[in-house]
């Protein structure tokens, strides 16, 4: 079943000279709040574990840089995300605060969450935030473009976990708004976690409130966003899942367009010209663009040619996800009830999940295969974020509160071998980011 590297590469060697831990970026902090610059890492408080693998970058996103590092307290490899220049403007620091709150709130096996946040320096020197999460070896994008075989079972178990994670996220009232293969992390056991909440936000219950269209990487962007709707909801994430489902089967991007207009045209090539009512939330100019074109019949039968694994059940579910009108698109909970996912659920809960376990008389299955959140995610913390200094203060307090009292806090070791390259790692340049939506009017 494994499609990514074996765990053995990951296992730590618990021997070797203790001094080697000086080379690691992550260090156990002393009880005194340190300054990043010039902080001397106290060797006695660090665990004597020596990392066998060097710290290295594993990803660069729009809002952060992720490195693979060793937790000095137990020698486990973890992912360290650096969020630089947090307090440049009010929008960016509110976004980071929101992402951090989410990472600390989420508790679900198919959603990435924060294991730790590094001890911040004195508030006067507080500019960057470092979050520790579980390290996953790969992501769906890397797997799709690799030569590794993807069986029908792989597709089912991946799709099951994507929807299972999304059902949970949506139960917390969070829209992810950037579901794409690169944001679906996968480990060597094929366990999958949704990550990167840089664009996520809570659902907007008020229809009259305008929401940004600067969301979702273009290939996975729902038609309502492409058509300039002012208000959208959970369904945008489900559209992205439909695109990823097709991509898992064919190993090609389903709608790979150069521009947002072409993106919309590719969608209507497959689904046919939408009925006027299916475009009711679109802006006038976008609706006129679609109506001006020659009437297109749907060509959904093409979905059967995606792969040998594109069975009737697979295509049926895909057609429920790739629905033009967001109000008619299937929801995550409903999609999970589709018969196509029965085998994925069985496989996941037979040998991959943490919610079921073996007993001498057989497997003890959980009562809730696809759990929702236990407690609602409160967004009231956003209410009085009126200035950068206010956000900074609240963020600082939140981080200190989050630090687990039972474990030694972590900090960055500026004397480590790779500190220089870690400190200079940059986020993606604007030119590398997906194109903005088309401006219709
Ligand atoms: Zn289970």
From TrEMBL:
The protein's required cofactors: Mg(2+)
Family under the similarity heading? Belongs to the protein kinase superfamily. CMGC Ser/Thr protein kinase family. MAP kinase subfamily. Belongs to the protein kinase superfamily. Ser/Thr protein kinase family. MAP kinase subfamily.
Q: Which UniProt keywords apply?
A: ATP-binding, Cytoplasm, Kinase, Magnesium, Metal-binding, Nucleotide-binding, Nucleus, Serine/threonine-protein kinase, Transferase, Wnt signaling pathway
Ubl conjugation listed as a keyword = no
Q: Where in the cell is it found?
A: Cytoplasm; Nucleus
Catalytic activity, per the record? Answer: L-threonyl-[protein] + ATP = O-phospho-L-threonyl-[protein] + ADP + H(+); L-seryl-[protein] + ATP = O-phospho-L-seryl-[protein] + ADP + H(+)
What Pfam families does the database record attribute to this sequence? Answer: Pkinase
Q: Any idea which positions bind ATP?
A: 81
* Protein name per its UniProtKB record: Mitogen-activated protein kinase
GO annotation (BP), single: Wnt signaling pathway
């Amino acid at each position: 079943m494994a499609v990514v590297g074996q765990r053995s590469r990951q296992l730590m060697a618990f021997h070797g000279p203790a001094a080697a831990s000086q080379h690691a970026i992550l260090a156990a902090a002393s009880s005194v709040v340190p300054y990043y610059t010039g902080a001397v890492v106290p060797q006695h408080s660090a665990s004597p574990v020596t990392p066998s693998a060097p710290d290295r970058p594993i990803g660069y996103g729009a809002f952060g840089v992720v490195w693979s590092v060793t937790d000095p307290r137990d020698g486990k490899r973890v992912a360290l995300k650096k969020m630089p220049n947090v307090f440049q403007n009010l929008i960016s620091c509110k976004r980071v605060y929101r992402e951090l709150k989410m990472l600390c709130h989420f508790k679900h096996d198919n959603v990435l969450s924060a294991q730790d946040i590094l001890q911040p320096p004195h508030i006067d020197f507080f500019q960057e935030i470092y979050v520790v999460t579980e390290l996953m070896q790969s992501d769906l994008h890397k797997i799709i473009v690799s030569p590794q075989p993807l069986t029908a079972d792989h597709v089912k178990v991946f799709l099951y976990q994507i929807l299972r994670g999304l059902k949970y996220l949506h139960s917390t009232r969070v829209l992810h708004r950037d579901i794409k293969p690169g944001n679906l992390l996968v480990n060597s056991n094929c366990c999958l976690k949704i990550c990167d909440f840089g664009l996520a936000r809570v659902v907007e219950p008020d229809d009259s409130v305008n929401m940004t269209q600067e969301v979702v990487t273009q290939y996975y962007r729902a038609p309502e966003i492409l058509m300039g709707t002012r208000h959208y909801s959970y369904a945008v994430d489900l559209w992205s899942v439909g695109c990823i489902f097709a991509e898992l089967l064919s190993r090609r991007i389903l709608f790979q367009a150069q521009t947002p207009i072409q993106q919309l045209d590719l969608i209507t090539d497959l689904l046919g010209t939408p009925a006027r009512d299916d475009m009711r939330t679109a802006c006038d100019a976008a609706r006129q663009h679609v109506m001006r074109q020659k009437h297109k019949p749907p060509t959904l039968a093409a979905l059967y040619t995606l792969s040998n694994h594109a069975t009737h059940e697979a295509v049926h579910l895909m057609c429920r996800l790739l629905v033009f009108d967001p109000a008619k698109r299937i929801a995550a909970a409903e999609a999970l009830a589709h018969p196509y996912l029965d085998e994925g659920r069985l496989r996941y809960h037979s040998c991959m999940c943490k919610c079921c376990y073996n007993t001498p008389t057989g497997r003890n299955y959980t009562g809730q295969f696809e759990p929702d959140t236990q407690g609602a995610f409160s967004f009231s913390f956003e209410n009085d974020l009126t200035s950068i200094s206010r956000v900074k203060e609240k963020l600082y307090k939140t981080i200190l509160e989050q630090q687990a009292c039972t474990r030694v806090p972590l900090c960055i070791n500026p004397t480590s071998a790779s500190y220089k390259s870690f400190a200079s790692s940059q986020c993606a340049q604007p030119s590398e980011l997906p194109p903005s939506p088309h401006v219709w009017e």
